Amino acid sequence: MGIIHKFSGDEARFDWQGVKAESYTSGEVKGVTKRVLVGPEEGAPYFVMRYFEVRPGGWTMLHEHPHDHGVLILKGKGEVTLNGKKQEVSRGDVIYVSPNERHQFKNTGNEIFGFICVIPNRKLVEPQ
Amino acid sequence: MGIIHKFSGDEARFDWQGVKAESYTSGEVKGVTKRVLVGPEEGAPYFVMRYFEVRPGGWTMLHEHPHDHGVLILKGKGEVTLNGKKQEVSRGDVIYVSPNERHQFKNTGNEIFGFICVIPNRKLVEPQ
């Protein structure tokens, strides 16, 4: 059965009813919060739709993996590294990260850098 | 290789560099425009990320199919039908439409009703 997660945030902080926030900070990732909007809990067999927020000065992991990413920037601005090449991105931009492409997202602004990031369900991706 | 589609629109009309718009009006769909942001042209093997706009008074098809939808409302407001139940949705809301769930999106406002809609690559979905 379908599910609706009503938006319960505001312009400054996005949030949704029935969606948990998980925050990460380590040596490899700084100031990142993830919310799974559609995924296994909703019963979705094929893809996972997540919303990430990166705090000013924060970054996601610099890494690569067999699954790809479909990204849409919803808030703020940042720098995307794709195979060693850095590019500025801001609200509205779409980024496709191919399988096994080394990538990282950094917040280069003074407000939250927020983006949707779609991945395939891990069961569909063969180990490489 | 990764691809960036820079946002080239404004608040009133979303658009992206390198992305075509396809408009539909028939007996079954009214005033709908689709943009494929990430999909086969970007080389994405697992999912397709589309942006739909529905004009005031317009609607998408009332139908069901084996693939599911992950939807995020980006603009305006509308009414979603899920298995015969109608619910109001607006900017920021997330809707998951399960496989084979009958659904329709209608614009009930005076501005564009715009949303992201993710589907799996059709090769992953077995005919049912």
List the helices and strands and how they pair.
The structure is a homodimer of 128-residue chains.
Chain A: E1 3-5, E2 22-24, E3 30-38, E4 47-59, E5 69-75, E6 77-82, E7 85-90, E8 94-97, E9 103-107, E10 113-120
Antiparallel strand pairs in A: 2-3, 3-4, 4-10, 5-8, 5-10, 6-7, 6-9
How would you characterize this protein structure?
- Two copies of one chain form a homodimer.
- The radius of gyration of chain A is 14 Å and the shape is globular.
- Chain A has no helices and ten strands.
- In chain A, the strands form two sheets. A six-stranded antiparallel β-sheet of chain A has the order 2-3-4-10-5-8, with no helix packed on it.
- In chain A, 0% of the residues lie in helices and 50% in strands.
- The model of chain A has no long low-confidence stretch (mean pLDDT 95).
- With 128 residues, chain A is an all-beta fold.
- At the A-B interface, strand 1, strand 5, strand 7, strand 8 and strand 10 of A face strand 1, strand 5, strand 7, strand 8 and strand 10 of B.
